[in-house]
Amino acid sequence: MPMLVCGDFNSVPGSAPHALLTIGKVDPLQPDLVVDLLGILRPTTKLTHTLPFVI
Question: Which residues of the chain are under the pLDDT cut of 70?
Answer without folding.
Answer: 7-8, 54-55
